[in-house]
Amino acid sequence: IEASIMGLTFCAAGISLPACMCSVIVAKQGRGKMAISKVFGSNVFDVLIAMAIPWALQYGVMGTQQLIKLEAHGYATATAILALVLIFYVACVAIGNFRLPREVGYIFVGLYGAFIFCVFLSHFAVFRAIL
To answer: Which of 3, 68, 86, 105 is the most exposed place for a label (fewest CB within 10 A)?
Structure first.
C-alpha cells in the first residue's frame, strides 16, 4: 500500500472519528440539528483551515516561486460522486420532512463503502481506463 493512501486513510480516520463520536453523542441527547451541523461544520473547517494554513505558511516562508502542485487522479469522478451523494442527502431530508430514518443511514454507510472501494480499485489501476 502506497504511503499516500496510508497517510490519507489515517488522516481521515483521525479527523473524522472524533467528529463522528461527538455527533453520535449529541444525536443521542436529542439534538439532531446540532449533530448534522457538526458533520458539515467540521468538514468545512478541515478544508478551509487544515488545508489553507499549511499552504499559507509555505507561501509566507518560501514565497510564490515554488507553487504547491496538486496531482489528483480521479478528481473529477470523486467530485461527481460527492455531488450525487449531496443531492441524494438533500432529497432524503426533503422527502422525510427533515427526519432521516435509520435505513437512510445504512444506505449512506453502504455508499461510503462503495466509494472507498472504487477509490482503491482506481488507484491500483483496475478501473483506470473506465474512470
So the answer is: 3
Whether the predicted pLDDT of 40 surpasses 60: yes
What DSSP line would sit under 43-72, residue for residue?
Answer: HHHIIIIITHHHHHHHHHHH-SSS------
For the chain, percent of residues with pLDDT exceeding 90: 4
Among residues 45, 16, 40, 36, the alpha carbon closest in space to that of 104 is found at 36
Give 77's Cβ-side CA count (13 Å radius): 15
Q: Is the pTM for the entire model greater than 0.90?
A: no
**N-terminal to C-terminal alpha carbon distance within the chain:** 20
- Count of all residues that appear for the chain in the document: 131
Q: What is the DSSP code (8-state) at residue 129?
A: T
Instruction: State the cell numbers at 52.
Output: 489553507
pLDDT above 70 for 127: no
Give tens-digit pLDDT for 69-88.
666 666 677 778 878 888 99
Query: What is d(CA 37, CA 23) in angstroms, rounded to the nearest whole number?
Result: 9
